[in-house]
Design a protein that fits this description.
Largest sheet: 6 strands, parallel
Strand content: 15-25%
Helix content: 25-40%
Mean pLDDT: 92
Length: about 350
């Protein structure tokens, strides 16, 4: 018979970080100390020609923000579909990269929604969920327009926007996410300090990149131009932090953060040999909010488990250490059986 500390029923907690004493939800997936997101603007020739292969070789993912009027670059939508099949995100950067503050309200709507519709029509293996403001230019009415169809938006402001910290408390800024601009002037030492700060704060660090070039793709005179060799070295440096940082797409980072804030875990039944749990959140659209969360259950020192499933599917790579059982499960993804 399995002995365990029973999980007491809990009241539904709406968007809070206060949990039952018997479980917690890690701040980031797999209990990583920080989240670092790679973003690339404008879908330039080097993105499909260089960056994509470099990411796949390192088992890394990123978010690419495209302008639909120039979607034929870098292999076009076929390459974007290939990117999504390897875990990447294709996001909205407007139709033609205008300064949204300087154009009419109707033009703002057309530029934002036109790109959104083009992505969803042509990149059919994902939903377009996040946005990047061209030139980092926006106001409240633009935010409200973006909010209608996107779950978050990245600005271009640095961490000074968040009192010089890569904060975890981004819930107030889902549509004004700060970022770090990366180019050849971004020395590894600078990136070290920024990653270190994100780890200390359990924060979100978003990196913004543009032109990546070599002899076949891109231009050495492009905006924030980096050679393929330099870019590869940056990726390799970030990989050295694999044990401390989670590197998802921006959409998945925001999904995790939003889900964690309003998720609860309850016991359905426990007969001593089989433990049934239900993980729920209060977010309404489960077709969007499908990111697994890392659950940390307090159990007795003699606890052991032969399997964990959710909705009949095996949950692999669960960890039992001392008095804590950790595993990843999707809110509203079906019954969890231990």
């Amino acid at each position: 018979m399995i002995n365990k500390l029973r999980l007491l029923p809990t009241l539904l907690l709406l968007c809070t970080n206060t949990f039952s004493q018997n479980y917690s939800i890690a701040k980031w997936l797999n209990d990583k100390k920080a989240c670092v997101v790679l973003t690339y603007d404008d879908w330039l020739e080097g993105h499909g020609g260089i960056v994509l292969d470099q990411l796949i070789q390192r088992d890394m993912v990123a978010s690419f923000y495209i302008n639909s009027d120039w979607s034929g670059r870098s292999g076009g939508y076929d390459t974007m579909m290939y990117a999504v099949n390897h875990g990447m995100e294709i996001g909205n950067h407007t139709m033609s990269h205008p300064d949204l503050v300087t154009i009419t309200t109707d033009s703002v709507k057309k530029s934002i929604n036109g790109c959104f519709d083009s992505i969803n029509h042509n990149v059919t293996n994902q939903q377009c969920l996040t946005f990047a403001y061209p030139f980092g230019s926006y106001n409240n009415s633009i935010i409200n327009e973006v909010r209608k169809k996107h779950i978050a938006a990245r600005a271009v402001w640095g961490k000074w926007f968040w009192n010089y910290k890569w904060t975890y408390d981004i819930q107030w800024y889902y549509y004004e996410l700060a970022t770090m601009e990366v180019s050849t002037t971004t020395a590894t030492l600078n990136l070290y300090y920024e990653i270190r700060d994100a780890i200390v704060e359990n924060g979100l660090l978003t990196l913004m990149m543009h032109e990546i070039f070599n002899n076949n793709y891109g231009s050495s005179t492009g905006y924030d131009a980096m050679s393929d060799v330099y870019h590869a070295s940056l990726l390799d440096y970030i990989k050295t932090y694999d044990d401390k940082i989670w590197v998802p797409t921006l959409a998945n980072a925001v999904k995790y953060h939003k889900e964690r804030r309003c998720a609860t875990l309850n016991t359905i039944s426990d007969n001593g040999s089989e433990w049934k749990l239900n993980l729920q959140d209060t977010l309404s659209d489960n077709t969007i909010y499908d990111q697994a969360l890392t659950i940390q259950l307090k159990v007795s020192p003699t606890f052991w488990a032969t399997s964990i499933t959710q909705n009949g599917n095996a949950i692999n790579n669960y960890i039992l250490k001392n008095d804590t059982l950790s595993f990843n499960a999707i809110p509203d993804g079906g019954e969890i059986v231990i």
